[in-house]
Specification:
Length: about 160
């Protein structure tokens, strides 16, 4: 169940959105989408709307849309609220998704991306992944370890 849950975050929740994606959760986010479109998309794709906006939350309630009113300022607390209220539990998959596009990353053959990553990284990493939309290359290096550590910290408190 928890692995299939999907979100639509309002434009005030950019940082929370990135961390949900870090946790492997499908999270739609756009700075340009308006509230009616956000609600239509969420309903069509069965997404839980995450919002800091009381007015939007109230409209969601009257329309019977799944929504969660985020009551905290910091993403650590926001993340905890989402996981607590929707009953999602660690461990998480770290960065299965592109943090910019929300797209599932695809494994790529190392030799094919040699000219796209720094030589030091190329020589020290075996597994590389690419976003099918923005073509950014990812690898499970220190950055992923740091994110994992941060998540452990957040949920141990
Ligand atoms: Zn991307």
């Amino acid at each position: 169940m928890s692995s299939e849950i999907k979100f639509s975050a309002d434009c005030m929740l950019g940082k929370l959105c990135r961390w949900l994606r870090i946790c492997g959760l499908d999270t739609f986010y756009s700075r340009r989408i308006n509230d009616p479109d956000l609600m239509v998309k969420a309903q069509k794709e069965n997404r839980v709307i995450l919002t800091r906006d009381h007015a939007l939350f109230n409209i969601c309630q009257t329309k019977n849309l799944k929504a969660l009113l985020i009551s905290h300022d910091f993403f650590e607390d926001q993340l905890k609220q989402v996981f607590r209220e929707l009953n999602i539990h660690p461990p998480f998959i770290i960065s299965q998704r592109c943090l910019d596009c929300n797209e599932i990353l695809q494994r790529v053959i190392k030799s094919e991306i040699q000219d796209q990553v720094p030589p030091y990284i190329y020589n020290n990493q075996e597994k590389f992944y690419q976003c099918p939309i923005c073509h950014k290359i990812f690898w499970p290096g220190t950055h992923w370890l740091q994110m994992k550590k941060k998540l452990t910290q957040i949920f141990e408190e």
